[in-house]
Amino acid sequence: MILPIYAYGQPVLKKVAEEIDKDYPFLEELIANMWETMYNAQGVGLAAPQIGRSIRLFVVDSVQMEEEDKAFKGIKKVFINAQKIEETGPINEYEEGCLSIPDIRGDVNRPQRLTIRYFDEHFVEHTETFEDLNARVVQHEYDHIEGILFTEHLKPLKRRLVKRKLDKIKKGKVKQEYRMKFVVH
Predict the structure, then answer these.
(1) CA nearest to 22, candidates 119, 123, 117
(2) Which of 17, 73, 126, 127 could share a disulfide with 145, CB 3.0–4.6 Å?
(3) How far is CA 141 from CA 83, 162, 169, in A?
(4) CA-to-CA distance for 5 and 48, rounded, in angstroms?
């Protein structure tokens, strides 16, 4: 089932999400719905807060990006109760966007490498290191479960330039191809 994506301004997007256990109700169905919602919106990642659930769960599929860069090897994974272990390497700048913040993109600086501990959809624990674009996508989604939006990483001037657009999104004054849930005034 395709779920509405919560738009900028929704309080759930600013909360630190709670851990879950393998008995979380309808977890398998929730993960399937998140994949369907993400693909419908043409995203490469989606975190549970973006569908209104303040839980430490996100999905990433950067395999779709392989078509743009043949040397790139993407990942398709479910991350539950993820915890950053360390970020290393040079800081790289790359333009990011977000399904909860349509029509806004901006350059974000992030470390090149991320080591993270998480559980997959079968509650098998993993510790993995991701690099470059895979690290960036995971870092972006991880930020969501920490209540951080990519716009908070933008340089101050860019933040000021997008403020009016952010206010419009908050008020629901944005056209999008996918279902969104806006703050009710």
Answers:
(1) 123
(2) 17
(3) 12, 21, 20
(4) 10
Structure tokens, 76:
């398709």
**Whether the predicted model's global pTM rises above the 0.90 cut:** yes
Cross-strand pairs, 181: 6
Residue 55 contacts residue 18 (beta carbons within 8 Å): yes
- Whose CA is closest to 147, among 6, 15, 8, 56? 15
Q: Which positions are annotated as active-site residues? A: 141
Domain ranges of the chain: 5-179
CA–CA distance, 169 with 156 (Å, rounded to integer) = 19
Q: What distance in Å separates the CA atoms of residue 20 and residue 96, rounded to the nearest whole number? A: 28
Under CATH, to which class is 5-179 assigned?
A: alpha beta
Give me the average pLDDT of each 10-residue run along the chain (185 residues). 97 98 97 98 98 98 85 94 98 97 96 98 98 97 98 96 95 92 79
Residue that the structure tokens 């909860």 belong to: 100
Q: Which amino acid is at 109?
A: N
**78 vs 12: CA distance, rounded Å:** 20
